[in-house]
Design brief:
The chain has six helices and no strands. With 131 residues, it is mostly helical. Helix 2 packs across helix 3.
Amino acid sequence: MTDTLTLAQRRIRVRQLAQPGVSNRAIAKELGIHHRTVARDLAATEAPAETPTQRLAQRAAQTETAMRHLRAAGQAVDDATPARTITDEETARRWCADLRATAERLMAHADEFALYYSRATGYANEPESAP
């Protein structure tokens, strides 16, 4: 397909082409896109935002959902008390590495957020780097 479609238009077209017995690869070839894009479009449950305001609202809603999941995951780890769970050394090393890597990623996000929203967070200076 030579026309450039918006995300919403493409998803509509993918759904129109998706008939029993028609493969994602066949749809992809028809539209000139990758077969995994077809799979993602078929799996998408909500319509894409069209205006900048809609995109911002959608992104804020996605972030709110991610933050809710983050709090739930943190609570699940608190409840599990991994430091007080008897396990083998290999699992203990993996859990420790997972906790440290996740904490590092989360701190990077928190620092970036605090810098961007310094007035709202009261974070006036750059975060201190670990030695």
